[in-house]
């Protein structure tokens, strides 16, 4: 944020009317007369505020094919209202961690339960039963055992990670559509 708000920008945003102009320009480009109607200010007053915002680099003039002049936010002006704090890196990292933890919880813990059941089957198997039959019986007993809490925890972690991935996709599509809409 320090590189965005330099001294001229701070001076430009020190007046409430200029702040209101900036908030309106976030939505779409406006002409000075449209802004004056929305703000209940005289067109000359709005024009002076726009000139100062343009001088500070927060607003730019957009010449149109007709006689009207529109004002829009520059990249510097947009960063004030739409800061990019690299939240996607945090969300992506947490989503990946949740996904890996969920997969580990589901598969490795289930595999551990299965191997523990197989070992228990070998330890308690009578000598007349072959080890293969005891292992098969223990495997089927572990498979028939009720699902433990670790499976539910794994599913919850995977669901949280999918929500994180969905958020990132929606955010990137929104950013892409806003960039394409500006052109």
> What is the 3D shape?
rod-shaped
Instruction: Identify low-pLDDT runs.
Output: none
Taking the alpha carbons of the first and last residues, their distance comes to: 26 Å
Number of domains: 2
Overall pLDDT: 75
**Percent strand:** 5-15%
Protein structure class: mainly alpha
How are the strands of the biggest sheet laid out side by side? 1-2
Quick one: biggest sheet?
Answer: 2 strands, antiparallel
Number of strands: 2
Number of alpha- plus pi-helical segments: 8
What Rg is obtained from the alpha carbons, in whole angstroms? 31 Å
Helix content: over 70%
Helix-strand topology string: HHHHEEHHHH
How does this structure look, described?
The chain has 183 residues and is mainly alpha-helical. It folds into 2 domains: 7-81, Arc Repressor Mutant, subunit A (Orthogonal Bundle); 87-182. It is built from 8 helices and 2 strands; from the N terminus they run ααααββαααα. It has helices at residues 7-12, 16-27, 32-39, 43-55, 75-81, 87-124, 131-144, 149-182; strands spanning 59-63, 69-73. The chain has a two-stranded antiparallel sheet. α3 (32-39) crosses α4 (43-55), α6 (87-124) crosses α7 and α6 runs antiparallel to α8. It is rod-shaped. The mean pLDDT is 75.
Structural topology:
Blueprint: H1 7-12, H2 16-27, H3 32-39, H4 43-55, E1 59-63, E2 69-73, H5 75-81, H6 87-124, H7 131-144, H8 149-182
Antiparallel strand pairs: 1-2
Helix pairs in contact: 3-4, 6-7, 6-8
Keywords:
mainly alpha; Arc Repressor Mutant, subunit A; two-stranded antiparallel ribbon; 2 domains; 183 residues; 2 strands; rod-shaped
């Amino acid at each position: 944020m320090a590189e965005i708000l330099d001294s001229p920008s701070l001076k430009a945003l020190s007046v409430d009317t200029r702040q209101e102009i900036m908030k309106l320009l976030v939505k779409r480009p406006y002409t000075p007369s449209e802004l004056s109607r929305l703000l209940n200010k005289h067109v000359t007053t709005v024009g002076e505020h726009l000139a100062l915002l343009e001088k500070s680099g927060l607003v730019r003039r957009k010449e149109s094919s007709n006689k009207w002049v529109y004002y829009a936010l520059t990249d510097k002006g947009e960063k004030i209202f739409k800061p990019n704090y690299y939240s996607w890196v945090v969300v992506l990292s947490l989503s990946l961690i949740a996904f890996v933890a969920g997969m580990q919880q589901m598969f490795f813990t289930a595999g551990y339960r299965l191997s523990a059941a197989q070992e228990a089957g070998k330890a308690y198997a009578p000598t007349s039963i072959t080890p293969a039959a005891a292992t098969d019986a223990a495997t089927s007993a572990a498979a028939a055992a009720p699902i433990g809490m670790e499976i539910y925890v794994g599913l919850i972690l995977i669901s949280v990670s999918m929500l994180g991935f969905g958020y990132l996709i929606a955010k990137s599509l929104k950013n892409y559509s806003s960039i394409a809409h500006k052109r």
